Amino acid sequence: MRARRRGGLAFALAFSDQGLSALLSLGTTLWLIRRGTAEQLATYVFWANAALVLGTVIGAMTTVHLYRLPPTAGRRGTERAINAAHLSLTLLASLGTFLVVTLLGPPFGLAAATLFVAGSLIGLHARALAASRGTMVHAAAISAAAMLAVGAAIAMEAWRSQSPDLTLLLACNGLAQATVGLWVVWRLCGGLAVADLGLPARRRQLVLARRSGWSLLAGAGNEVFTRLYIFVVPAWFGATALAALAAAQTMLRPATLLAGAFGAASRGPLVARRHAGDTAGFWRILLLGAAFPAAMTFVAGCVVALLWPWISALIFGGRYPGLEAEVLLWTGVLVLGCFWVAGLAGLQALGQLRHLAQAELGGAALCGVMMLPMLVLFGPRGALVAMMIGGLLQVVLLARGIRRGL
């Protein structure tokens, strides 16, 4: 009974963390839809996804190894080596972002994107550190800080009847995540010695780097699958087309919270079932964690598509009408995503990174191959059709990998 209560509390805190992050993204997007321009919305989507791409790549070499460590004792040395590696790569990514910003023209060339990317990378790592230690309250604190900072900026602009200042919003978000994220790392790792650059730590980093090949391939494959349209659609059809796809997805984001919370809170129970040899219990957790969020997402997508004329007129201020088809396509993508989250958690709990990489690369390759013909046939919405085709293959390969791992 006590274990169930702890599991329920962990899930509730993980859901809160996911909810705050989703609320932050939803609030920013809605503000830009109602008061901003299509170029501002597209720029926000571009940099938000660029930060996630970098977070996945860097996390595959560093953060992912935190999940293998015991929750409390016996992890300090490896943890500090991982922290040092992540901070070093974050610095390099920030410098690279600064160089890209100087080369990009309007609307994507915003100087505040450098601070936003750096803060996002620190926040992602600190939240993963908290999750690996089972202290989801610290992860939620990072999301809450970013939401409060950006919310205050939006409230100030609304009170003054100002148009959105995307530079201000990105800067507030990045600064809040960086500040609270560094505090969480300091708090959990025992003071100033949060990162170790000594010889033993560098040896640990080399060992972890050699173990990161499959996770890096898996992360790269997932990012190609998930974010390819972010860069292809505006290059082909312009920023306005990307803004329309982002607007169609906006009202569906709360429906994905259950899947995200399951992914954050399920790894401990799945590892416990694995070590206990409880194959049936392992599958039961995965199927419940995939099917329930998928059903809720499907219902939410149908309702949003049905109510889209009202949403466009009242919530979006008369902007982005006629996106019912895009909403339904996004619903299909997100329903498959619920099963992907469950498969990802299952393979990580089993330590089957090779099967994970194969599934991610297979789905990404099919999505990439289908992207061009789907865009030719269906225009910008064809990107979502390509993602559904690749996502279906991805889920099949994940299930096969789990079956083999068990």
Question: What is the gist of this entry?
Answer:
The protein is mostly helical. The protein is built from 16 helices and no strands.
Quick one: biggest sheet? Answer: none
Can you tell me the residue ranges where pLDDT is under 50 for at least 5 consecutive residues?
Answer: none
Query: What is the number of helical segments per DSSP (H or I, 4+ residues)?
Result: 16
Q: What percent of the residues sit in helical stretches (DSSP H or I)? A: over 70%
> What proportion strand?
under 5%
How many β-strands, per DSSP? Answer: 0
> What structural category arises from helix and sheet content?
mainly alpha
* Average residue pLDDT: 83
Q: What is the global morphology?
A: globular
Radius of gyration: 21 Å
Oligomerization state = single chain
**Kindly, what is the distance between the CA atoms of the first and last residues, rounded to a whole number of angstroms?**
27 Å
Which H/E pattern describes the elements? HHHHHHHHHHHHHHHH
What is the strand and helix layout of this fold?
Blueprint: H1 2-35, H2 38-61, H3 76-103, H4 112-132, H5 136-159, H6 166-188, H7 199-210, H8 213-237, H9 239-250, H10 257-265, H11 267-276, H12 279-306, H13 308-315, H14 324-350, H15 353-378, H16 382-405
Helix pairs in contact: 1-5, 1-10, 2-3, 2-4, 2-8, 2-9, 3-4, 3-7, 4-5, 4-6, 5-6, 8-9, 8-15, 8-16, 10-12, 10-14, 11-12, 11-14, 12-14, 14-16, 15-16
